[in-house]
């Protein structure tokens, strides 16, 4: 039986982390010959409830130092529209590293090497001329991949559902490794197999899910909806087999392997134990978790934003749920600044008189998300309303371009999103640029 451990964090985070490692060490040593450890957090953003708890990260680092780790690195490449150095500053990861002696690694600032996805792309040629089968990984990630026998790699995701992937746990956490420009390509129904491709390149030694709290109805809840979308679980879930850990994490949400496509694919490829009946869960009885939580977005959107969905094709993994999640955040976290009166067009299969219908209803500006919609109606809408009024989000939704568009359309400013002073955030951005970050970010002004 593959073992997965669940420990209660109500006893104190450090105590819970110590207990988790005591379970893991019964099977094998934590440190390898180099005594260097690389920790991958889920630090997609600095928004509340979306990133791995800094307190858990601190406790893990302190434990590793106690057992003799010579160097501990905390690494991430935050999601599009963010810069990792800025996220580390705001979330407290930088402070944790400084106080524990760990070293932050900003993967978006490193040189890269090109790799290939296994799966067949959804189209033979991307309309923008991009290669859909290749992606780039930073030198630190490549170093770990090429030296798995001497470096310890610890995967530390947060317990979250995901409106595109079902859940974002151990396997999905590896999606932070490809560079920003490579993530939006073919970010559609192919996403599930691509997640497993990335996981197969760099399987963690073990995974610890921060389940102090978990998010439902997606991974990016509006702060205004925290009481509805953020649930206390007060647990850590860990084990040597990331697939098994994810299966247990999904079960805590009431989800099965068959309901999470990338877990099913990983199981079918033989990359870990996906059969819950063959997993020995130590520490908690999973029958305690009786509720089934929804992973899709709450279908609540501002009434004065017109959402047009294609009737032939609409991928929740790309052009649908990324723009809609952002729309919810802007509308409900910044209601005093948010302005509607615009449209979002997504998918494939629209009425021939779409432009006429929009004008008739009073909509003359908006966003066309994804290459399917751009190819079908993008130029028609720009010819009707003007290029300055109709924004494009390329690939299967470029989150940076989507963010730029929705900020411009809604009247919310870029720096409204950043919970630090304009002076400090400007200094950080200049520092990031100086270090050669490849992060794709929205227009700042």
Description:
The protein has 445 residues and is an alpha/beta fold. The chain folds into 2 domains: 2-288; 305-412. Helix content is 34%, strand content 20%. The protein is built from 15 helices and 16 strands. The protein has helices at residues 13-24, 54-66, 84-91, 93-100, 139-146, 180-183, 191-201, 226-229, 242-252, 261-268, 316-333, 354-360, 371-385, 399-410, 422-434; strands at residues 2-8, 36-41, 71-76, 103-106, 112-116, 134-138, 151-156, 158-162, 166-167, 206-215, 230-239, 279-282, 305-309, 342-346, 366-369, 390-393. Strands 1, 2, 3, 4, 7, 8, 9, 10, 11 and 12 form a 10-stranded mixed sheet that branches. A 4-stranded parallel sheet has the order 13-14-15-16, sandwiched between helices. It has a two-stranded antiparallel ribbon with strand order 5-6. The longest helix has 18 residues, at 316-333. It is globular, with a radius of gyration of 22 Å. The relative contact order is 0.14.
Q: How many separate domains?
A: 2
According to DSSP, the number of beta strands is 16
Mean pLDDT: 95
Shape: globular
- Total helices: the number is 15
The percentage of residues in β strands lies in 15-25%
The radius of gyration computed from the alpha-carbon positions, rounded to a whole number of angstroms, is 22 Å
Derived from helix and strand composition plus strand pairing, the structural class reads: alpha/beta
What percentage of residues falls in helices of 4 or more residues? 25-40%
- How is the biggest beta sheet arranged? 10 strands, mixed
Which stretches are low in confidence, meaning pLDDT under 50 for 5 or more residues running? none
Distance between the termini: 55 Å
């Amino acid at each position: 039986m593959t073992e997965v451990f669940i420990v209660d964090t109500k006893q104190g985070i450090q105590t819970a982390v110590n207990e988790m490692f005591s379970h893991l060490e019964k099977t094998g040593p934590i440190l390898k010959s180099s005594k260097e450890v690389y920790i991958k957090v889920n630090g997609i953003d600095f928004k509340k409830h979306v990133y791995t708890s800094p307190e858990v990260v601190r406790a893990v680092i302190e434990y590793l130092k106690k057992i003799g780790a010579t160097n501990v690195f905390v690494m991430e490449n935050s999601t599009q529209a963010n810069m990792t150095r800025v996220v580390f500053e705001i979330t407290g990861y930088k402070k944790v590293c400084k106080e524990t002696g760990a070293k932050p690694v900003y993967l978006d600032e490193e040189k890269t090497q090109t790799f290939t996805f296994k799966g067949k792309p959804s189209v033979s040629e991307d309309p923008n001329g991009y290669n859909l089968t290749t992606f780039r990984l930073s030198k630190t990630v490549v170093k770990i991949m090429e030296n798995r026998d001497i470096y310890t790699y610890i995967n530390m995701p947060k317990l979250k559902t995901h409106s595109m992937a079902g859940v974002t746990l151990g396997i999905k956490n590896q999606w932070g490794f490809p560079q920003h420009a490579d993530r939006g390509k073919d970010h559609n129904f192919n996403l599930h197999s691509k997640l497993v491709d990335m996981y197969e390149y760099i399987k963690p030694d073990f995974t610890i899910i921060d389940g102090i709290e978990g998010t439902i109805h997606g991974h990016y809840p509006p702060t205004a909806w925290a009481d509805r979308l953020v649930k206390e679980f007060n647990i850590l879930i860990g084990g040597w087999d990331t697939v098994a850990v994810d299966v247990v994490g999904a079960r805590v949400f009431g989800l099965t392997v068959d309901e999470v496509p990338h877990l099913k694919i990983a199981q079918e490829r033989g990359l870990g134990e996906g059969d819950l009946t063959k997993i020995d869960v130590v520490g908690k009885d999973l029958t305690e978790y009786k509720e089934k939580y929804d992973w899709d977005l709450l279908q609540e959107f501002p009434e004065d934003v017109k959402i047009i969905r294609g009737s032939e094709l609409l991928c929740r993994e790309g052009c649908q749920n990324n723009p809609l999640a952002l729309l919810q955040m802007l509308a409900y976290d910044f209601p005093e600044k948010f302005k509607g009166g615009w449209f979002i067009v997504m998918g494939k299969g629209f009425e021939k008189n779409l432009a006429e219908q929009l004008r008739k209803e009073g909509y003359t500006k908006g966003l066309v998300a994804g290459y399917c919609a751009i190819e079908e109606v993008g130029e028609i809408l720009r010819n009707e309303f003007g290029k300055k009024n109709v924004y494009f989000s390329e690939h299967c939704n470029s989150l940076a371009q989507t963010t730029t568009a929705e900020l411009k359309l809604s009247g919310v400013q870029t720096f409204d999103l950043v919970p630090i002073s304009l002076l400090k955030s400007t200094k950080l951005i200049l520092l990031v640029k100086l270090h050669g970050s490849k992060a794709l970010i929205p227009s700042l002004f």
